[in-house]
Amino acid sequence: MAEIRGKPSVGQSVLRFFYSKRLSSALVFGLWVWRAADVGELQRWAAQAEGLSKDGNPFWLLIFAGIIVPLFVPRLRVAWLGIVLALVTARDLEIYSSFIVVVQLFQLQSQMLVSFVDFAKCALLSWLGFFDWCMQGTMPTLNTVDWIASVMVLYSMLRYAYTILRISRDRQLARSLFELDFQRALEQSFQVAFSSDFGAAGSSPPPLRQRSFASIHTAGVVTEEQLRHLEEMHAVLLVSRSIVMQKDELPETLTLKVRRSHILEDSWEALLQAPADDLLAPELEVTFAGEARGDGDNMLDWFRSVSRVLVDGAESDTSSSLLAMGKSSKLLIPRPVAKSTARDVQDENLYRQMRLLGRFLALGVVNGGRPLVKPLSALVCKYIVGDRVDMTDMKRLDPVFFQEHVAPLLSEGGLAKMEAARGQPLTFVSVPTELRPEPEELKAGGKSTKVTDENLSQYLQLLCDAFLCSEIRQELQFLLKGFWDVLPLEALQEAGVSAYDLSLLLSEVAFA
Fold first, then answer.
1. Nearest alpha-carbon partner for 486 in 283, 273, 278, 268
2. What is the predicted pLDDT for the residue at 55?
3. Are 324 and 373 in contact (CB under 8 A)?
4. R_g of the chain computed on alpha carbons
5. pLDDT tens-digit profile of 141-197?
6. Distance between CA 141 and CA 120 in Å, rounded?
């Protein structure tokens, strides 16, 4: 599939350049160096650095790195100790001499820091001088670098104001679009897509298929072959997503800040407010309130912590967890929302959470977080990747249902034999379940519509569709929409992700 990208408009290009963090950092650094050179500080620093050199070697490069890294790259401050050790090793000094070098390095760093503070003050005072000019008509006396610094201050103020307004606007827009799409989805119902030959008369129940690759150990240990397959699949999936979305530029990082004590509520709120483009960011950064900013461990910790809340009480029918253990599959499915005659606010809030749950699961796939501690149902994985359900899936899911209500009708003359055993014609009504004890019509007028050889295939599809998802149609609808917000269906299909592949990307233990 060829990559097709639309060219951004002139206005978009200007706005992106204006908002670029790299531009701001480069201007600040360049102006600071210019001013330092203008007042003679740069030359003095160079002389000091050269004095720390030995035999004309480029020792000053290490010194320069030892000064710049702690000042401008806070996350790499730990590297400063390594640089100091490198200095000591390179100079082959004794302990006392090494101490002198470190002290001189600290002194040089302090001078540069003070210089940068003076530069910032100068820029601010230059801008304040414009107010005097406007009030008194006295033109401030400034050299070139001060003029540019004053413009830089104005640029920084405008950029900061734009950032605040943009974040507020994007969050409001994300909420509005989420709610608009939510109301539209309420009017839709999920329908299972069956294979073309599903329910064909005279067909025999197929044998169980083999997996797309070697079966995973139930203990959750991934083999090397599976790991290589997943790594390749993950890389292809990310490329496919970028092609399908056709985005010219995306935010570098999706940043989430949550409290451990309210991890689910804060996570859902953050995913609700996240603009659509932010959800597609290639990097995910999670910060826990009141804790030091961490690295990738924070992200994995977040996935595990949310996952534990999602599956806590999954086996209980009275739990409020969003995921439940399926009665037939014994794997995770969306927990059925208790339906009332009139849909209430509580039902809608649960549906919203289902969509946010879908976003969380997809983020786990994109960032390699494996967001579930237990495997997701094989059929739910099939729905997500757009695979069709066939007889093998029905037989694997619930052998009892399959043998009692499906298999007899697939044999030659099976319909007549079942009606003779029942003592009455078979009609388009569902099989009673625990949550729906009363049979329901599979289509309009189903109670009075007899099953015949001509409509047998339709009956079996409607019967199995009702058995699979009549209790969780809306839940599935919103779970899929949320997942596709982050990983579109087209990207999953373009990458060739199977249901079993997805199960492994979601959890270390795949469906059996």
1. 278
2. 44
3. no
4. 32
5. 656 666 666 676 667 777 777 777 777 777 788 888 888 888 888 888 888 888 887
6. 18
Other Cβ atoms less than 10 A from the Cβ of 37: the count is 14
Buried b (16+ CB within 10 A) or exposed e, 469-481: bbbbbbbbbbbbb
Burial class (CB in 10 A: 0-12, 13-18, 19+), 92: exposed
Question: In this structure, are residues 97 and 108 in contact, taking their beta carbons and an 8 Å threshold?
Answer: no
pLDDT at 449 over 70: yes
pLDDT tier for residue 216 given thresholds of 50, 70 and 90: very low
Which region, left, alpha or beta, applies to residue 474 given φ > 0 means left and ψ of -120 to 50 means alpha? alpha
Shortest CA distance to 81 belongs to which of 57, 98, 59, 96? Answer: 98
Residue that has been written with the tokens 């994985």 in this structure: 381
What is the helix (H) or strand (E) element at residue 325, kind and residue range? strand 323-325
Which three-class secondary structure state does DSSP give residue 258? strand
Helix axes 78-91, 59-72, angle to 10 degrees: 170
pLDDT of residue 195: 84
Can you give 56-112 as a three-state secondary structure string? CCCHHHHHHHHHHHHHHCHHHCHHHHHHHHHHHHHHCCCHHHHHHHHHHHHHHHHHH
Give 65's contacts (C-beta < 8 A, 6+ positions apart): 83
Residue 442: CB atoms within 10 A of its CB come to 21
Say if residue 3's pLDDT is above 50.
no
DSSP one-letter string for 353-422: HHHHHHHHHHHHHHTT---BSSPBPHHHHHHHHTPPB-HHHHHHH-HHHIIIIIHHHHSTTHHHHHHHHH
Amino acid letter, residue 63: I
Contact 106, 67 (CB under 8 A): no
Calculate the CA dihedral of residues 421, 425, 431, 432 and round it to 10 degrees. -90
pLDDT given for residue 213 in this prediction: 32
